[in-house]
Design a protein that fits this description.
CATH architecture: 2-Layer Sandwich
Number of strands: 5
Helix content: 25-40%
Largest sheet: 5 strands, antiparallel
Number of domains: 1
Distance between the termini: 31 Å
CATH superfamily: Molybdopterin cofactor biosynthesis C (MoaC) domain
Strand order of the largest sheet: 2-3-1-4-5
Strand content: 25-35%
CATH topology: Alpha-Beta Plaits
Shape: elongated
Radius of gyration: 18 Å
CATH class: Alpha Beta
Order of helices and strands: EHHHEEHEE
Structural class: alpha+beta
Number of helices: 4
């Protein structure tokens, strides 16, 4: 099973041994959106959702989830994240809220899963806090936007350096 680092020669799932890897500064950025009705987007933007400040709560949820990724994704290494940022952009004209999670650390393995987990938890929190107002919400387009560090180097979804 060449190329699959989480599979051993017998086809078993394994945690990758990163002992010999160099410690480098690593970053990852992921994004996603949640689509919702216009009146719900307005309520979120105005801070008038009955459950409270949706984006502040979702920001904390995203940060907490990024830090707890190895508890959720079985083969992820515990990482000492030095920074986690969760940011939102309310896009009324597009009928959605965009979330971006960025993580940074010095370590032997990347933080792509932490950024993706942070975005996912943040958007799920938005859904949870707004579901009484809109059961038709859709979470979409969760993806890695960029990563730096490590042997594979820089990746940017848009091909930018």
């Amino acid at each position: 099973m060449d190329g699959l680092t989480h599979i051993d020669d017998k086809g078993n799932a394994v945690m990758v041994d990163v002992t010999e890897k160099a410690i480098t500064v690593r970053t990852a950025k992921a994004s996603g959106i949640i689509r919702m009705k216009e009146e719900v987007i307005t309520a979120v933007a105005e801070g008038s959702v009955p459950k409270g400040d949706v984006l502040a709560t979702a920001r904390i949820a995203g940060i907490m989830a990024a830090k707890r990724t190895p508890d959720l994704i079985p083969l992820c290494h515990p990482l000492l994240l030095t920074q986690v940022k969760v940011e939102f952009e309310v896009l009324k004209d597009e009928g959605c809220i965009r979330c971006e999670c960025s993580v940074r650390l010095e370590g032997k393995t990347g933080a792509e899963m932490e950024a993706l987990t942070g975005v996912s938890a943040a958007l799920l929190t938005v859904y949870d806090m707004c579901k009484a107002m809109d059961k038709t919400m859709e979470i979409d387009d969760i993806r890695l936007e960029e990563k730096t560090g490590g042997k594979s180097g820089h990746y940017n979804r848009n091909g930018e350096k």
